[in-house]
Amino acid sequence: MTNFTNFRFEADSDGIALATWDMPDRSMNVITPQVMDELSQLIEKVAADEAIKGCVITSGKESFSGGADLTMLQSSNAEFMRVAKEKGEEAANTFLFEESRKLSLLYRRLETCGKPFAVAIHGVCLGGAFELALACHFRVLSDVDSTRVGLPEVKVGLFPGAGGTQRVARLMQTGDALQMLFKGEQLRPLMARNMGLAHAVAPRDQIVQTAKDWIKNGGSAVAPWDQKGYKLPSNKVYSAAGMQIWPPANAIYRRETQDNYPAIRAILETVYQGLQLPMDLALKVESRWFAKILRSKEAAAMIRTLFLSMQDLNKGARRPKDVPPTSIKKVGVVGAGFMGASVAYVTANAGLQVVLIDRDVEAAEKGKAHSHKLMSDQIMKGRAKTADRDALLERITASADYSDLTDCDLVIEAVFEDPKVKAEVIQKVEAAIRPDCIFASNTSTLPISGLAKNAKNAGQFIGIHFFSPVEKMMLVEIILGKETGDKALATALDYVRLIKKTPIVVNDSRGFFANRCVLGYILEGHLMLIEGVPAAMIEQAGKQAGMPVGPLSLNDEVGVDLGLKILRATKAQLGDAAIVPEQEELLTALVEKEGRFGRKNRKGFYDYPEGGQKRLWPGLKELQVNPVEAELIDMQELKQRLLVAQALEAARTFEEGVITDPREADVGSILGFGFAPYTGGALSYIDFMGAKTFVELCQKLQARHGERFAPPKLLLDMAASGETFYGRAAAKKAA
């Protein structure tokens, strides 16, 4: 038996080796330089030892591996900068290419070492770890629901760079392979086997034996693509079949990405070029593209926000350190309308007991039925069993009696957005709950400090703002009132972690963070329409800029009538100067004259025919006094206006101290309202452009479109000093 630090290695009496990957002091195996070094020694040992017939690789942990340690990639970039400074750009490029190829060459050595390698996978096996599996000659997965395989690198602005693009494209039809690589989704065991990515699925306690049996029965040590006479699944690139794939693939890439994602373009290029070459050259092509993408600002931004920052926030970066862990077992939800019912569902789904309160038992039961529907949908899709639904519904108590909240650890009110209604509910809840119970309000616009005035203990009152639809949206805004204490914050963060969502902590202000930014996006769309820009161009500009939907479509989703209501409430509280009168006129015409409330009543900026595709309402043209010819409009400027409007608002919230951590602004902007993910988020958009360039762009837009584009003092100072938001945050932390 040979011992490594990260692997246990032993051979059985049949001469079959078992390498168990089990990193000390880590809950999950990750690929590090040390792991790569040990894996290399292990491969050479198997290859050289005549007594060893083959080797099975498995994991000693609950999961196989999450892939490469992304901080390793970040240090490669830092080293690139050092080499570039000392020896020039060309030497730095060579260094990065050689560095980023190491894993690919290691896996190729495993694949061609002359001995069969099998892999037995239980739990998640993603990214570079799944690329290791693809280089093995036989792959068996456990039939457990938690087992998942996939190549999710595109989600952080990268692509599989250790042979993943080449092996997947040789195992599957080209169209299917491209789709899998573009989406980066995690696959269940049977799906992976049916797609040709795995050879077998077996019970967990039999996967290692299944892999060993394959070697014992003479499993081949030669990968399909290294065998004589191998044919590509979809024939050659330049063949009749190939030509039916590549032109549409290019068109789909453009439609889905608007050419904003260099990594997805690199996948297209790598597969296209690689399939025309023998494997070793194809892997070299992949490595060249990988080194190029590793240097892209999109990869840097997305890795920082969607991996590192998100991980920090999910682990409790903003949790007060001196508050001991809380024990939340029972949660009260007051208000069984759409939001309250959805909050009850995600809470019960996390295994917590829920008391769902409404004005009468019938209304509360109706809210509980929402959970029944959501679980039934999961059952229909094969993602849950009837027993799961029964157990979840068992955890929800529907009631009209506030005294049922007596033993709750946390109560969330989700009643109508009206200060008077909320004040009444707060008093009723407070009469029923324990003195140490934390009380939260799910509000999207009402300041928490104002609501807390109705509470007996403002220190235990906090805002927990969910986004709709609650079960799908991953972001939760936690709002601190002026008097909110650390225990309330710690409890709210612990609760959000329990329901597996990502929290951002914001200070109290009207609209908080996400809604302020998103209202800027919708306003800009409205003003473009008023200027005479064709509605289809506005929507297309939003999508081309990288937003999930155009501003008019988004307004329909949240409700055109709700937009008008928020605007009038703002005007009543802050005066005429706080709103744009033209926007009020447009929304009044739509809601009060035309009865167009949005998707909810099948007519807003779009028409929503029964069973048909939504389409822009033709009557929008009648609302435009001076329509502008499409040819005269600068599309680039429309895209800039839509992103700059949101980024400027994010910068203002930072200047006002509403949001205090750039990580939260960036994660919140992508998860909360879909701010162009390739930018890394609303503040990263400014940082990567440079404050000076961003301020110049704002001033150009200000001159053409008005004072809403005026950069705040903070940005003017940053432009003068060359500072970044992340640089300021790091300096503040160090101080």
Automatic annotation (TrEMBL):
GO terms under biological process: fatty acid beta-oxidation
Catalyzed reactions per annotation: a (3S)-3-hydroxyacyl-CoA + NAD(+) = a 3-oxoacyl-CoA + NADH + H(+)
Domain 3-hydroxyacyl-CoA dehydrogenase C-terminal: from-to ranges: 511-608
SUPFAM superfamilies recorded: 6-phosphogluconate dehydrogenase C-terminal domain-like, ClpP/crotonase, NAD(P)-binding Rossmann-fold domains
Sample GO molecular function, one term: long-chain (3S)-3-hydroxyacyl-CoA dehydrogenase (NAD+) activity
Record key words, sorted: Fatty acid metabolism, Lipid degradation, Lipid metabolism, Lyase, Multifunctional enzyme, NAD, Oxidoreductase
Database matches in Gene3D superfamilies: 1.10.1040.50, 2-enoyl-CoA Hydratase, Chain A, domain 1 (3.90.226.10), NAD(P)-binding Rossmann-like Domain (3.40.50.720)
InterPro entries the UniProt entry points to: 3-OHacyl-CoA_DH_NAD-bd, 3HC_DH_C, 6-PGluconate_DH-like_C_sf, ClpP/crotonase-like_dom_sf, Enoyl-CoA_hydra/iso, FA_oxidation_alpha_subunit, NAD(P)-bd_dom_sf
Domain 3-hydroxyacyl-CoA dehydrogenase NAD binding, first and last residues per copy: 330-508
Pfam families (UniProt xref): 3HCDH, 3HCDH_N, ECH_1
Pathway the protein takes part in: Lipid metabolism; fatty acid beta-oxidation
Family to which this protein belongs: In the central section; belongs to the 3-hydroxyacyl-CoA dehydrogenase family.
PANTHER family cross-referenced by the UniProt entry: TRIFUNCTIONAL ENZYME SUBUNIT ALPHA, TRIFUNCTIONAL ENZYME SUBUNIT ALPHA, MITOCHONDRIAL
Name recorded for this polypeptide: 3-hydroxyacyl-CoA dehydrogenase / enoyl-CoA hydratase / 3-hydroxybutyryl-CoA epimerase
Organism: Microvirga guangxiensis
